[in-house]
Amino acid sequence: MPAECFNPNCDPASLIDISIEALQALTSHFEDEVAVTHVRAAPLRAEDRASKEALLMIGILIPKLQMIRRSQLASAGPFQRCLNCDD
């Protein structure tokens, strides 16, 4: 996460956007780890279980953050939206 988001002046919308991006990157990492553990027949190690649980939690958190971000954009009104943004 960029250092500017640890700044108390970082606006919540930017923090949410950056957090979503970071969580999506983590998802890719954990998906790779979980995919490797499915190949093994042995019981999951604690680290592998933790990766799988983190992946499940991130899968819940990202849609919630996206919903909050969309509601912020909707409440901002049509003239305050970024015309070049995908939101």
What tags apply to this protein structure?
87 residues, mainly alpha, elongated
Question: Could you characterize what this model shows?
Answer:
The protein has 87 residues and is an all-alpha fold. The protein contains two helices and no strands. Helix 1 runs antiparallel to helix 2. It is elongated and about 55 Å long. The model has no long low-confidence stretch (mean pLDDT 79).
Secondary-structure map:
Elements: H1 12-39, H2 46-76
Helix pairs in contact: 1-2
Largest sheet: none
Please give the alpha-carbon distance between the first and last residues.
Answer: 21 Å
Radius of gyration: 17 Å
Shape: elongated
Strand % is: under 5%
How many DSSP helices?
2
Low-confidence parts lasting 5 or more residues at pLDDT below 50? none
Broad structural category: mainly alpha
- The helix content is 55-70%
Number of distinct beta strands: 0
Mean pLDDT: 79
Order of helices and strands: HH
